Every structure is written in C-alpha cells, then in structure tokens.
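Example with several molecule types.
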Amino acid sequence: MLATGAAGSTQPGQGAAFSLILGIGDDAAVVRAPDGRVVATSDMLIEGTHFRREWSAARDIGHKAAARNLADIAAMGALPTALLVCFAGPGETSVDWVLDLARGIAEECATAGAAVAGGDTSYAQAIMVSATALGDLAGRDPVTRSGARPGDVIAVAGSLGAAAAGLALLAAGPSAGPLPADVRAELIGAHRRPKPPYPAGAQAAALGATSMIDVSDGLVADLGHLAAASGVRMEVASRRLAAEPLCPVTSLRAAAEALGRTGWRDWPASGGDDHALAATFRRAVVLPERWAVIGEVTDGGGVVIDGSPWTAGTAEASGGWEHFRS
Amino acid sequence: MLATGAAGSTQPGQGAAFSLILGIGDDAAVVRAPDGRVVATSDMLIEGTHFRREWSAARDIGHKAAARNLADIAAMGALPTALLVCFAGPGETSVDWVLDLARGIAEECATAGAAVAGGDTSYAQAIMVSATALGDLAGRDPVTRSGARPGDVIAVAGSLGAAAAGLALLAAGPSAGPLPADVRAELIGAHRRPKPPYPAGAQAAALGATSMIDVSDGLVADLGHLAAASGVRMEVASRRLAAEPLCPVTSLRAAAEALGRTGWRDWPASGGDDHALAATFRRAVVLPERWAVIGEVTDGGGVVIDGSPWTAGTAEASGGWEHFRS
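Resulting structure tokens for the full complex:
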C-alpha cells in the first residue's frame, strides 16, 4: 500500500494527480493515504498580522500560505499530498487578486508534490488565508520533536536568515542605503516566497532523523522547541551556522550595511520565515550535502551558541551576537 | 486495516483516542487513515458573516464550527476521525471566551467520534474560526453528489427548518410575539447548535446511497446540487417534507405566528444550517426509520415540490410555498 513512495525513498510522491481521488466540488475531498496514517496541519495568514498587501503580491501570499503548511508536513518526515484552503476577504477584493493568490497556492503545491484538494471562500473585513496540509509517511515513523539524544548532530536543510533580512529591508523602505539590486531581490524574495526544502523532510526520516522541526520562529527558538521536547541541550557552532551556503553571508552583510546595522548574525539565528528544516541525527549517519551540520546535542537544556546561552533577539535588533568572535 | 469500523458498520469509529496517533504539540498531527484514503474538508466561521457574538455563546460557536465540517465528512459516507482548528481574534478577546469555544469544539468532536488533532491561533480584528475535518471511509466508496438515478428515492436524516426559524426569532428580537419558552429554546438552540446525524452518513453509504449532501444551504438548494451533479430531477412531496419528525411542524407554525408570518414552510424547504443529510437510494433499499423519504428522482433537471418548479426563497421571506395546497 506504500504507493506514494517506497520506504527509504527520498523523493516526493507520485504527485498531485496520484494523491487526489476526489477533488473540489463535493462536500469533501478524498485523498490517498496509502500509509494508513495521514499527517495533518493547519495554520493561517492574516492581513496586517502575517503579511501586508503593499509588501507582497497575491501570488507571493499564495506561495507563502501553502509553503507554511507544506513545510510542517515535511518536518514530520512526510510527503505532502494535499492542501485545503479557506479564503476570506473584503467584498472589494478584485477577482484578479484572488486568482493570483490561487495561482501562487497551486504553484507551491506543485513544487511540493501536493494537490489542491478543496477549500472555502467567505467574506471578511481583512484578507485571511487558512490552509490545511496533508501528508503521507510512506511507511516510516513520524519524526517528532522529542527524539534528540546527547551525541546526535544538529543539521539544517534549506537556508537561514534571508527572509528576515528581506523583511527588514521592506520595513526600512526608502530609508535603507544603496544595495545591489540582485541582493535586494534575493532577500526580499526569500521573505515573500520561502523555499522549504520539501524532499529533505522524507530524506531525513529515511536517514533516521531523531527529531525535526520546521524553522519558522527562528532557528534558536525552534531548536529550543526540540531541546525542550527532547530534554537535551542544543549546542550550535556559529562558524557553521553563519556560513555559506546555509546562510547567505555576503548578502546579509551587505543588507546590514545598507540598513546601518552593526550586525547581521541575528538574522540566521533568530529570523523567522525561512522554513528551513532543522533535524538531529545519530553521529554515524552520513548526511547528504543538503544537510549542513551546525552543532551537536548534549546533556542539559536550552540552546547555546559557541557555548553561551542564547536569548533570542529579533531581526529588528541591531546588535547581532555579542558572543560572536568572528 | 479497516480498524475504525468494519465495512457495513453504521456506527462511528472507535473514537478520538483511537484516531489520533500524534496530537497537538508537534509540527503536525498524525491521524489514523485505516482505509488508505482520507476524506478532508475545510470551512470557516467569521464573526459578522456567519455568527454574532450577541446571538451565540462561544461554546455554541465552537459546536457549530466543528459540526459544519464534521457533517461534510458524514455526507461523504465517512466516519469523522479528526478536526484541526485555526482561531483568530482581537487581542481583547477574553481567555474564558476562547476556552469556551474550545470546549464547544471538543464536545462536538466527541459527539461525532473525532479527535481534536491540531490547530493554530492568531490575531485578527474579527473572530474567525477555520476548521478542517478528516474522515475514514471504512472500506466503502465515497458517496458523491453525482450518482442519483431516475427511480431512486430521496430521503433525509436529521431535522429541517428549526435552525432557520431560530435565526428568524433572533433577528426579530423583542418584536416577536409571545412563544412558549420551550419552543423558542428548541428553535434557537437548533440555530446555535445544529445536530447533524453523523452516524447516518456511514449508514447511508453502507445501504448503497447513490448520492448524498449535507443540507447547509437549504434543502431545495442542496437537492439542486445533487440534481445538477447527477443530471436528474428531484421531485419532493410537500406532505412528506413538512411532516413530523423530519420537520418540527408544530413549533414552526407557532414561531411563524409569533413573527406575524403567513407561512412557515419555506423554513424546511430553504432554510439553511440544520445540517441534515439528504441522500438518494435505490427504491428497493429498506431504509431505517431515521431516513425519511420525501420524494423521488426522475428524468429532467432541477427541483420540484408537488410538481412545481421551486425557486428558493429565504427564511426571511414571509410567503411560504405558493403551491402548497395544505
């Protein structure tokens, strides 16, 4: 019955057309769950709280609404199979805007290998997009937050820091200093359309990841969730975290300079919304190149960087890491 | 693998504790899908659009948000297994209000045999509850809207008309005339907490229902969806529709009188939100008492009552059915 991916597969499933047995148009959709279990997660994007229409186009918002949920599926070690979307907005919202939103959602689902399986539309004063993603475990156990053990390595797939820097650039607006156009586009693009490394989730599960989380609150905060759930300490080495290609150091440094900030390292450490995946693995596991090792799991609690306890700042802070010695 | 209900079972599954493998607290939940397929549906309730806080308590809104989605699962012939809920509201919303909402959601899930599997909370100017329900087909085919055939009978499980009458009473406020307290409570209660006949959905599937729908837009509108999807005509007999126990005739008549309305029959015909189930069955099927036959499927299109084409009115209209001869 493991039709969407043999155990040990590191590729997404056979795609949307395979997942969807019955789509939009009835009381409910029917989605394949060949594993006999279904992974499910919901969250929402609300105008003014999660996005601003002057900063993100409808298509970007669609990408992000889908990505946030699909990344949570990947973070369980599962293959995304389907997405259901509820949209509410003011009566004056243009049809083009809504169609662009739907286009962004569909594009992101296609990237993740998931089908758009259903949804609902309604009236509300502010635009709200709520989504539920479903996924298939392909015969593997879900990778929870609680399995990290001392001796494990901590590794990250995806990218860290760019989304927070892009948001800082948007917030600064014209007050930001000059910045090469491609750097600006790279960072703002990362904020508008995060690129979760979807296949890395099932890959990590196949490699026996002991814990995993979608990095949405910021790396330190999310490693803190793993530390708390697993009863361990997460020790991160700054030279591994703040290193290409995991972290776009050159671009972040340029953005910090344009913004008159003294530091850029709080972006990869505590900036949210990149939707990288952070996981822990047994030390003996040979990790594919996509997984960058950034530290190790030890006895204790909390998150330390270069041996110092870390109090999560925000990307708005100008300080960077005090304990950074580079 | 059909562990939540043997094929042909007419009872809900083994309940929430069985359905939920991994609940709230990780990136996503893991829910049993023993059938190898999962039924999924989403919709939302928005303050001002779908409810008013002065008319419904938080607990009622929780019941309704869950019921709307769980009823859609039943309408596919499936057993509800899980519900994910996103809540957004203003910062000044009291914790008690939110806890009461959660209590209503949990109570309705328990009634349907589903687990509360996850969710998200956020800030928004108006209260918004978005929910996704999951269900298991227990080895049966989903009952879609498109399988009705001429010669089938049309039957309804649940109740029709009370929710719309209750809404009319709330809308009229003090301007309504006297009404026995128990009648008022019955009708307003039906608006605040619809009671979908959850087990009837899987029962209908087991009986070979050819089409089925959750009655949320009003019976005639929803039968119209079956008629359109199936390419048939739905012929309803008013004496069967406007009859106890399917329709609380005595209470509706009293409410119409209190409201100074000349008719009450548009409530069961076009009033929404009762969340009854309407289905079609082969004529030879012996239907359990819960399923009230109200008409038959014929060649043609649309919905007719007593042979006359029906244009859906609203519960706000005062006319009733012109073609009613009673």
